[in-house]
Write a structure and sequence with these properties.
The complex is a heterodimer. Chain A has helices at residues 42-50, 97-107, 112-125, 141-154, 171-188, 199-205, 223-228, 233-238, and strands at 4-13, 16-26, 31-35, 57-62, 65-69, 73-74, 82-85, 159-163, 192-196, 208-213, 216-221, 243-246, 248-252, 257-262, 265-271, 279-282, 287-303, 308-314, 321-326, 336-341, 345-346. By secondary structure, chain A is of the alpha+beta class. In chain A, a hairpin with a 2-residue loop joins strand 4 (57-62) and strand 5. The chains are: A alpha+beta, B mainly alpha.
Amino acid sequence: MDAVSLKSVSKHYGDKPAVAGVDLEVAPGEFVALLGPSGCGKTTLLRLLAGFETPDTGSISIGAREVARARTMTVPPEQRGVGMVFQSHALWPHMTVGENVEYALKIRKIPTTERREMVDRALGIVGLVERRDSPPDQLSGGQRQRVALARCLAMEPSVVLMDEPLASLDAHLRESLQAEFHRLHRQLGATIVYVTHDQSEAMALADKVAVLDHGRLQQVAPPRALYAEPATAMVADFVGRGMVVPLDAPVPGRAGSVSAQLWGEPIHLRSSRGGTSSQACLRPEGLSLGASGIAAKVDRAVFEGAGTILHCRVDRAPDTLLRVFHRAAPPAEGSPVTIAISDGWLLPAAA
Amino acid sequence: MTDGAVPKASAVRVTAPRISGDHTLAGIAAALVILLCLLPMLRLLMEALLPGADGSLPLESLNSRSVFRAGTNTLVSSFASTVISTLLGGGLALLIGLTDIRGKSLLTLLCLLPLLIPSQITALAWIKMLDVGSPARVAIDFLFGTEANHPLYGGGGVSFVMGLEHAPLMFLAIAAACRALPCDLIEAARAAGAGHRRVLFTIILPLLKPALLAGGALAFVSAIGNFGVPALLGIPGRFSVLTTLIYQRLNGFGPSVLGETAALGLILAVIAGIGLLWQRWVIRRAPALRTGGPTGPILPLGRGRLLIEFTTGLLLLLLTVVPLAALVGAALVPALGVPLTWETATLENFTYVLTQYQPTQRAFLNSTLLSTGAAVVTALLGLVLAYYGELRRWRWMRALDAMADAPYAVPGIVLAIAEILVFLKPLPMVGVSLYGTAWILLVAYVARFLTLALRPLAAAVKQMDPTLEEAARLAGATGPRRLVNIVAPAVRASLMSGALLVFLTAFNELTVSALLWSRGHETLGVMVFSLQSEGAAGAASAVASITVIVTLAVAAIATLFARRLPKGTLPWMP
C-alpha cells in the first residue's frame, strides 16, 4: 500500500491549469521531492495533498484512506493527519516554542504528562529542548525552522509535507538543515513530500524526484536516473542544464544503444528500449576536445575551479552553444576546435 | 505561494453529513448582518416607495413648503459648512503637512480633537462660549450691537459649527495626500526655476485636488446627516433642516407618520449616497502618483514662521479648547449668567446629574452598558466576518461586507427610521416588540457601528500570514477553534482598538438614539440635548463635561493599544 497516491489529479484556476492529470505514488518511508520552476504547479500539488485545495478531477489517497475525490468528497485538512513545514515557518508568535509543538497534541486531548514528554521528545530530535519556553521571535531563522519541524513531527503525521522549507534561509544554514532533514528521514522513516525549485536540494535529499512543468508530471525517478536518463527535453534542461540537440537518422543498435548523425558526424548514444525520438541530451562531462568530431569555435571559457567549461559555437548550427568540460588549459577564445561525444542520451519519444 | 497560484480555499464538503462549527458560526454572523443591516434598509425602501394604508404614495406627501424649506436649508447649510471645513481643515493641513512649522504633533492633535467631541457637545460648548455675560458675547455685542437672540441660533451658526465639526475630515484627507506627495516633483519644479509660491499653486495644489474634492465630499455628506448641531442651534433659531424635520415630525405625531418620514429619510440617503459615490469616483480618477522615492516635501515658512506658529496655535485653541473650557465653566456655575469666580464655582450641577436626577443617572448607566455591549458585539461579529471573508475567503461572507457598510453610510436618522420600521411590530414567535426597550438601541448601535470594528479587523486579517492558520488546521484544529486560538491573538490589537472606537462613538451617539430612546432608556447624547432644550443649561453642561472627560480618557487608552497598529487605524492618529 502506498503512503500517498494521486490518480489523474487536475486543478484549474479559472481556465489556467495549475495541475494537469498527475499520477503519483509515494511508498511508505520514501522521500519524494516535487521539483520544477516557479509556476509549475508543485505548491498546488502539495496543497492538494494537505487539503487546502480540492481537485477538479481525479482522487487522492493517504495511506489506506481516500481523502479526496473530485466533485464527490474531500476530507478537510484538519482531519487528514498530515504535517506540514512551511517556508515562512508559520510559528504562532503568541505561543512559546513548547506551546507551538504542544498545540496539535492538546487538540487530540492527549493527557498532560504524556503531552509534555512528547513535546520534549520532538524538541530533543531537533536539539532545542532548552528553548522550550522561548517565544519564537527570539530564535534564529534556522532554529525557527527546526521548531516548525518539531511541531510537525510531534503530531506523528502519516505524511510530512514540506513547502520550500529552506528557501528563506541563507546558503550555509540551508546546507546544515539539509543534513538534518536527511538524518531525520533516515532515523524516523517518515514519508516526506518536499517541494523545491532548487534541483541540487532535490537531488541531495530525495529518494525520488518528481519533475513538474506547466502542471504536468514530466518524470519521476531517483536523482541519478533523472540526471543520466531524462525523460523529456524539459527535464534534461532543468536538471543539470543538459544540452538538447537535434539528431538525424537515429538507428537503434543493440539493446540500450542507438547510432545517429549529429551535424553530419556519426555518434553513439544510450537509449531506453524503443526510444525513437530525434533529440539527444548531452552533458559537458560527456564531451571533450578531440582530433575529430563536430567542428566549432570557442566562444567563451568559464573557469569553474575543477576545470573549465568551454562554450563552443557549432559551425553548422551557429545558434547552438555546446558546453564542454575541459581540464587542461583552455584554448584561446575564437580558436577552432573539434568536439568528440563520448556519452549522450537519446530522449524517449518527444512529449 | 511560490507558484503564483491564487490562494483560494475551495468549498469543502465534509464526509460526515453534519453541520460543521464553521457553518454554524458563519451562519449566525450572516443572519445577524442580514437582520440588522440589510433588512432595515430594504424595509425603509419599501415603506418610502410603496403606497401606504390609505393608498397614497409617501413621496407625494413631501410636496409641502416645510419640506421644501428644510431641504433647501439642508443643502445650503451643508454647502456653507463644507466651505468652512475646506478652508479651515485644508488650510491647517497644508500648513502642518507642507511647512517647517514647529509643534506639529500638538497642532495635529488639536486639529483632530473635534473628531472625539460629538456634534451636540460641540454645539453646546459654542452656545456656552457665546452665552449672555461671557467675555466673547460682550465683545460681539459691542461690535455688532446687542441682540436678544443667541448669535449662533440659526442657519449661520449651524453652518459655522458644522464646518468646525467636520474640518478634521478635510484635514485628514489633505494631510494624507501631503504625506504621499513625491518630493522629486517639487524638486523638479524648483529646478525649473519656480519659486515656493509658484510651486504651491502650479504643482502642489493641482496634485492635491483629488484629496480636496474627496475630503469635501465627506464633509458635505456628514453635514447632510448631522443632527446634533441643527438640533441645538437650528431648532431654537427656527432653522429647520431635513434631520430635525424628521425628528420633530416623528416626535410630534408618532409612528403614524413613519411612511412620510421614511420618504424624507430616503431623500436624505440619496443625497448622501450621491456624495459618497462622487467621493469614490474622484479618488478612483485621481492620477496615480509613483511611489518609491522620498515623499512629504517641506516648504520653509521663512521669517514669518514665529508669527504664523503663534497665530495658528491661538486660532486652534480658540476653536477647540476654549469652547470646551466654556462648557466646563458653564457646568461649574449655579445658574445661567452667573460669572465664574472662585466664590461662585460649585460642583452642584455635577452632583445633581450624578446622584440626584434619575434620568441622567440612568443615562450614564445606559450609555455605558449600551456602548460596551455594542463594542463587544461588533468586535466579535467583525472578527467572524473578517475571518471567513478575508482569510477563509468564503465568497458569500465577503458579500456581507458591503451590507455592513450601508447603515454607517446613510445618515444616522435614516437608520433610526429603518430600525423602527423593522422592530416596531412584535417580533415573530416571541411576540415582543423591541421598540420602547433598550434592545432597539443596542440593535441600532451594532448595525451602525459594525463597519467601524470590521474595517481594521478585515485589514489586519488580510495582512496576517495565512500559513499561521493553515498550520493550525493541519494540527487538527476546527475552524472556530483556529479563530479563537490563532486568528484572534494575531489581530488582537485591531480587535481592541476597533472595539474602543465603537465604544467611543456609541457613548457619544445622539442621532440614532434621538428617535429610539424611551423613558427609562435614556442615553447621554439624548440627555444633553433634552436638558438643554428644557432650559436646564447647567445640568446639560455637566453631563456634556463628564462625557468629554470619559471620551478623552478612553481615547487615550485606545491610543496605547494602537501603537502596534498600521497608521490610520484610529481616525485621530493619521
